[in-house]
Amino acid sequence: MSIDELVSVVAPPAQRTTGEIAWHAVESQLNSALPLDYKQLVSRYGPGYFSKFIHIYQPSNDLSAIDLVTQAGSRCGH
Hints:
Order of helices and strands: HHHEEH
Number of helices: 4
Strand content: 5-15%
Strand order of the largest sheet: 1-2
Radius of gyration: 13 Å
């Protein structure tokens, strides 16, 4: 499903609570490029979840449970 198809089914929030994301810095911290569709999803929807079930990790989130860099590090043993 493309981001445009998702938007047609689930409207993004009217107001985003996060600012612009420095993707280059995030990818540098992770030592990995992130998929374009993930970046579009995070940029369009911001922090949150779908159906109170699927949480999307966010870069630079104050809540470590959903912070992308924190979670990636903990899963890689860092």
